[in-house]
Structure formats: structure tokens, C-alpha cells
Specification:
single chain; alpha+beta; Heme-binding Protein A, Chain: A; 8-stranded mixed β-sheet; 4 helices; 8 strands; globular
């Protein structure tokens, strides 16, 4: 699958780096750490209790900002190496309002940005050093650095970077912008 980005036209002039910094500041850190794990900060899988084609979570800071990871994802829980997410990560979507869950696919109501064709994968044996674990767990804590590194690797083949705007990327990669969404935070 070729790399592509779909985005709301309201973020077209943002660089990927600036958008992710703003998203991170809004999403915050769900504090999914030892001794602090509960249902409110664990997210969920579509397709199974510890694995599936999607993993999604909503911010515990504002209960609206969300992300959805798509691919073939598995969480080890207590199996060795414990608390590791691995598999393939093909897409990531960011925005506000999360719908779906265990019986229907997740979707974001007010989509800001969706990256497809990421082609990232890691084996269970890589543990917390695997790129899938680093990206998703990073996002859960509001840290976009692993994702930004991966995106820079992908964008480099187009002579672009995370400092490029979504509109610049669209001109080269052939991505698309959609009409402005209604800001759910204003509701």
C-alpha cells in the first residue's frame, strides 16, 4: 500500500510536526503506567480483547481527542515480553470524538489527519524496542517522537519531511484534503 495522508483542510497549512505538537498538547498523557492502569486509560481493540485490526484510545485530559491505530496489532499483557504491543501498523488517524469498539470498527467523528500505508512492523521478540510499540505507546503518553522519526523515513523518499505542510505533501504524494469539520470542542 502506498503512503497517503488525508486531512481536514483546516490543517493544510500546518507542518506535520506542528500538527502533532498541537495534537499532543491537547491529548496529553493518559498515564498508562505501572500502578495507574484502569479502564479509562487503557483504550481498546476492535477484533479481540488483546488483539485486533484497530487499537483506539481517547484522551483522559479532555475525553474527546483520540487516535486510532490500524493494522494487525497484538498486546502481550503478561506474556513475555510483558506489556508489549507488536505486529503491523499500517494507519493512524487523529481527531476528536471516538465511536465504535468491540463490536464495530472504531472511527473518529471529526477527523483531522489520517496516515495510511505506513508499513511499520515489529516482532514480539523486539519488546518495547519495536517500532509499533514505540509509536503507539508514545502516542498514549503524548510523545510523538517515534512517529515523527518513522514519518521522516517515509517522507524522505519524496524529498519531504515532518516540517513540510500537509498541502505540500498533497502536491507531491497525491493526498487529499476534506472540507472543514465542525469543532466538537465548541459544542
Amino acid at each position: 500500500m502506498a503512503f497517503s495522508v488525508d486531512y481536514d483542510s483546516s490543517v493544510g497549512s500546518y507542518s506535520i510536526h506542528d500538527y502533532l505538537a498541537e495534537w499532543s498538547a491537547t491529548f496529553g498523557d493518559v498515564n498508562h503506567t505501572n500502578g495507574n492502569v484502569d479502564e479509562s486509560n487503557s483504550g481498546g481493540f476492535y477484533g479481540g480483547s488483546l488483539s485486533g485490526s484497530q487499537y483506539a484510545i481517547t484522551s483522559t485530559a479532555n475525553n474527546i481527542t483520540s487516535f486510532v491505530a490500524e493494522g494487525n496489532l497484538t498486546y502481550t499483557l503478561f506474556a513475555d515480553p510483558a506489556h508489549t504491543l507488536y505486529g503491523s501498523l499500517d494507519g493512524l488517524s487523529f481527531g476528536d470524538g471516538l465511536q465504535g469498539g468491540s463490536s464495530s470498527p472504531y472511527n473518529i467523528q471529526a477527523l483531522d489527519v489520517s496516515f495510511s500505508g505506513l508499513g511499520l512492523s515489529s516482532a514480539q521478540s523486539e519488546g518495547h524496542d519495536g517500532i509499533v510499540h514505540e509509536v503507539v505507546y508514545g502516542l498514549m503518553s503524548g510523545d510523538t517522537s517515534a512517529l515523527e522519526t518513522a514519518l521522516n523515513g517515509i517522507l524522505d523518499q519524496y524529498n519531504l519531511s515532518i516540517d513540510s505542510t500537509f498541502d505540500q505533501i498533497a502536491a507531491v504524494v497525491g493526498t487529499s484534503a476534506t472540507a472543514d469539520h465542525t469543532d466538537l470542542l465548541a459544542a
